[in-house]
Amino acid sequence: MLTTALILLPIAAALVVAVLPLPRETTAGLAFLAALMEVALWIVAAARYDYDAGGLQLDSSREWVESLGISYSVGFYGFSVWLVGASVVVFAAAIGYALRVGRDRSRAYYALMLFLLGAVVATFVSQDLLLFYVSFEAMLIPLYVLVGVWGGERRQAATVTFVIYTMAGSLLMLAAVVAFGVTQGTFSLVESGTSDNTWIFLGFAIAFAVKAPLFPFHGWLPLAYREAPVEVAAVLSAVVSKTAVYGFLRIALPKFPDPADDLSGLILVLASAGLIYGSVLAFRSADLRGVVAYSSMAQMGLITMGIFAFDDLGASGAVLQSVAHGLISAGMFLLVGMVERRCGTGELDALGGMARGRPALATIVLIAGMIALAVPGSATFAGEFLIMAGVYAQGWGYSVVVALGVVLAAMYTLRVISAILHVKPGRAVREEALDLRVGELALVVPMILLLLGLSVWPALVSESSFSGETTPLTAGRPGWTGYAPVEGNG
Amino acid sequence: MIDTPNVDWLALSPSVALLAAAGVALLSVLLPEWMRKAVAATAAFAGFAVAAGCAVVVFDHTPSPEVLLDGSMVRDQLTAMSQVILGVTGAAVVFASWGERRRTNHAEYYALLATAGAGMAFFVSADNLMTLFLGLEWFSLCLYILVAFDNERATSLEAGLKYLIVGGFGSAVLLFGSALVYGATGQLSFQDIASANPTSEAFLFAGLAMLLAGLAFKVSAAPFHMWTPDVYEGSPTSITAFMSAATKTAALVAMLRVLVTAFPEQSDVWTIAVAVLAAISLAWGNLGALAQHDLKRILAYSSISHAGFLLMAVSANSERGGEALLYYLVVYSAMSVGAFAVVAARERELQAPVTLESLAGFGWERPYHGVALWTFMLGMAGFPLTGGLFGKLFVFSAAYDAGEWWLVLIGVAATAVSLAYYLNVVRWMYMRSGTELTLAVAGGSPPRDLALGVAIGAAVVVTVGSFFVVQPILDVASDAAASLPF
Q: What ipTM was assigned to the predicted interfaces of this complex?
């Protein structure tokens, strides 16, 4: 019931917001309130989940299409708890940001944002293949309009490219869903067995690779992240990309152990390439959004490496990194939006010297930057370290790539920090541009605090993600060290 | 005394109700002018509603198929279910037609609509080659007139002429095919054809091919689709809605019945033929739609591509395929009638054909129609939260089950292409501002058209509802599909 409520609350709120003819501020306030209630509801769910027992909890199931074995089944695994947690927090911040800057046609805007939240949560908790497909696809409907209507100048090109890429992937997945479900006789992820059909695996893997995006499926990323409204870009990079992580962890790996094993070399190489290539592009990028966008692509490469490390270190590192990256990239995007609003541009050339007289901005950007570049002791460092250690089993070369990625992350993050805060005041930075206001701090600081909390205690996420006897990844296979919780390394 | 066959009036009741409604509608010319439209429309609506109601009763009281009238008709759940779809579609079309700006001939319009419905209801119950042809001509003749009904518009007359010529050709092909089949087997009724020992395989296969082609004209499957875009564009929009939903339903159900009942021995040939038709329709319809500018033409090409999906279900030649076909028809009829009804609304507002450009800003100015058209476009593209997704899913799984995985891949590719034009409609509605509109809107609020709104609302309810309430529809569809000897 609780899980269903987590899905239905935002969708019901979306309907209310869309239908009630309220003034703009009231609509926005109502939407923000709904997002906060969703956070509260998630806290209840996270508290009810028994991390020692692990496995599927808070689940409910209802027949949908009996003759094909399709059901509405939802439930939480440890890692779903954390992925949903990052999502609801990011959405609350994003809707809060929209409330602050004000959006035209607010009823449609907030309805779509809330609907998107519902779809994202549904994706992370679905335990039925068709429900997963439905929610995965349902995310696209609001995103298409959110980017296309409220985006920047080239929004139409951005939204069309985005939709074509994602739908091409999703339709391959639909074919894979049909093939898998029909052969298994059920679409339930809990009841279905494994398959050794490489083609079906590829159908899923490509869909997730586009969504993440992984190199070389990232063609939609630069335009979409640049042209989307900044809070939508935050949601895209922080949350929507993580549905690919869930897909890999819940479907691609557990249901296709052999194909995943056979193709892991290819995927690891592509992920490594994406990590390095994304980092270099982020370093070369001429504007703020480009840096955050490409760094997000690099991080997704890193997370994928953790997933395809095939051991508990890599997988729990991937989940920890997903949560940390979700929070930090959303925070970074919102900060980018705040800087852009002050200067009217995100061109690094035109910025600079903003630290002077703006202590709050300087402090927050610096802390966020330090976390983003994975300074030792931060949650991101913990995640990267786990991934590095996990992927070592697949070959020491991959660990070298991860280490290189960490170095490159430091390079592009430091470059962007100094381009905003230091050097000479840029031509776009006016003297009277304000420091961060209280309302803006209230959006970013909670996420930074959560990240600091995770930095202190990363094991909260990493050790509870795959705890318990039955996790989706307990399928026995050669080369797996199993996903039993690691005792006493906290 | 002459022996008369025992007539099962209940089985005939849908057709009879619609014929009676047509009679009442025609008689309304005797009434004062101000009452005619109301009486004729009410009669037609009542006819369709009663027909659907009677069909529900027949469905409930027909556990197993019964052959009627000396083997010329069959009473079974497949017939009844398709009659329900036809009746509901027709009723919605009556609502959509109400606001049409037409000064005269209301009586004839609604009478012809009801008669066409009666013909379709008869056609889907046909159980031998004679009744099949009679039913086809019955509703086709009505449609030829209805297509050309707006005779002050040249495009409507042109459409009527094209439909008459191409449709006449299609009927002739069907008739010739029937003759060949009769020549080869000496039998008219479907069951007897199946059990007969054909004297000439060549004649039988030629006849089968021509029967298939004749029906494919009505389904508007490529390469027998050439009339579709022009006729859909030129006809009065409510009639386009009726044709796209009802004609397709009737023709596909008849096709499924003929193929499965009369030609089980030849199934390895016709499944491939139908699969190829499906593939061509998918490719042609979707690629053709990309190049279109007029919304009615886009929807016409989209209906060709949907013919492809529906034929995919036929080609599976299984109970699951029949189930998928009927489920898809329920959803598709709703989406199609709804989409054309929204087009009609915009047409009446602008007094001009609806192109993509004339949709600019439509979604924001007319939120109800905008959201509805958005829903239909997403539904046709197979997005979640609409029955379109399950329609595609069932069709794909039926085809995959039948071993036609290549057809599934073509269907997936076709769906990907179709997004380009479906989402383009959404893009024009929401992402272009109304200031780009070159046609001046008359100003003020659009003409108040409650009836049209009701039709659109009903279509939205079915489109979205069929996503959540899948199993009950599927149960009915599976009972209906079980009437055929798969």
A: 0.88
